[in-house]
Amino acid sequence: MDGKRLASYIDHTLLKPDILTSDIRRLCEEAVEYSFASVCVNSFYVCAAKNFLKDSHVKVCTVVGFPLGATSKEVKAYEAAQAIENGAMEIDMVMNIGALKEGNYDYVEKDIKAVHEVCKDRALLKVIIETCLLDDDQKIKACEICATSGADYVKTSTGFSKSGATASDVKLMRKIVGDFMGIKASGGIRDLRRMMEMIEAGASRIGTSSSVGIMKELGK
What we know:
Layout: H1 3-7, E1 10-14, H2 21-34, E2 38-41, H3 46-52, E3 59-64, H4 73-86, E4 90-94, H5 97-101, H6 105-119, E5 124-128, H7 136-148, E6 153-155, H8 167-177, E7 182-186, H9 192-201, E8 205-208, H10 211-217
Parallel strand pairs: 1-2, 1-8, 2-3, 3-4, 4-5, 5-6, 6-7, 7-8
């Protein structure tokens, strides 16, 4: 895979709590230089990222209900709506993990649908299911609910829990959603080898803060 195509998989990510606007500027400059798919930032920085990326093809992605997924569906919907108004073109929301684990599937579906209604025709919706906290049956159920609730992508991880993406989880997710949805692998993807493992397993987008290092491995 050549560098340009590889770069098109990457959501260049910076979600630490102590970052500065200057860090967001650098993130955006790197994204433009390497032609990454998007920058993924906390919602406070959406306006800044939009400004830094003007006249660029790079999209602005932000997170909703992050990193726990435990806010109400109304709060998530409002957060997504505000982010879109501010310039976000992609929304990565965290599923209500506790509700899924206790079998409250109706609420999980309503939670995702509430954000989908806001995103519809305005922004891409990715749902983070936090695979490291689920068994395989729960991962399957989460993917099925995402598929019927209007999500465009199902995403492995926040990168803030006990572990991140695995190739086996990506393969399982791809088996469930088929070609109907995208899969975003994130969490712990820090080098080219790991990134290629995820793509070969079925990932169509990669979330990483090690994007520049990965591109440098290619000599790009």
